[in-house]
Write a structure and sequence with these properties.
234 residues; MetI-like fold; single chain
């Protein structure tokens, strides 16, 4: 690597990091929160068999899981203006990413909720809790523990996929790398630099996931000890 390339990489790093913190990370966080909300609503609609909305939810999941994310981005940003619907690039990215990831997260959440033993719900009814209280106090806390690893994997995937927003002119970290590469004619070094930053972000998320999973497992063991009578009590 020549001295010129080293200087370009060093000078580009603050700008790449700025757009990572300023655009990539907020975009990822906003989309993940919205996708979890949409996914939860979609999952509950199916679990409780809400008329009409259940079929609508299944159609939505089928549609967004069956078409590429890049196509969805293009339809929303480039396609809708032909119908008179103008949406700026950032909002288009938020909508497309949220709907796409919610379709996958919905199935994760639904499976996690159904994995909670039915006896937990029956016990809730026996102590006088209503359906909402059972779901929020008993089912969802347990389902969260079950779904957590998969949802964290979804977040890590979203962090990487956020680079696709560059295809619809959102100036995030990867788009910034493209712009610098176009002016310096050093695409290999700059794209590798962007890849390293994405790798560091995903590594950080993986570390956080591991710590939180250990915490959940510790709590689970703690609850098991509390619920198991000691030999003296027996």
């Amino acid at each position: 690597m020549t001295e010129r390339v080293v200087q370009i990489v060093i000078s580009a790093f603050p700008k790449l990091l700025l757009y990572c913190v300023k655009v990539t990370v907020p975009l990822t966080v906003i989309v993940f929160i919205l996708s979890i909300f949409i996914a939860l609503v979609t999952a509950l609609v199916q679990i409780y068999h809400v008329k009409f909305f259940e079929k609508l939810a299944r159609f939505y999941i089928w549609l967004f899981r069956g078409t590429p994310l890049i196509v969805q981005l293009y339809i929303i940003f480039f396609g809708l203006p032909s119908l008179g619907i103008m949406i700026n690039a950032y909002v288009s990215a938020v909508i497309a990413f949220s709907l796409n990831y919610a379709a996958y997260n919905s199935e994760t959440i639904r499976a996690a909720i159904l994995a909670v033993p039915v006896g937990q719900t029956e016990a809730g009814y026996m102590i006088g809790l209503n359906r909402f209280q059972i779901m929020t106090r008993i089912v969802l806390p347990q389902a969260t523990r079950i779904a957590f690893p998969t949802l964290m994997g979804s977040l890590i995937g979203l962090t990487k996929d956020s680079s696709l927003a560059a295809s619809i002119t959102v100036v995030e970290m990867f788009k910034t790398a493209q712009q610098i590469a176009a002016s310096t004619y050093e695409p290999f070094a700059l794209y590798c630099e962007a890849a390293v930053i994405y790798l560091l972000l995903c590594s950080l998320l993986t570390f956080v996931q591991g710590r939180l999973e250990n915490k959940f497992e510790w709590k689970k063991r703690d609850e098991t000890k509390e619920s198991t009578p000691s030999p003296a009590e027996a």
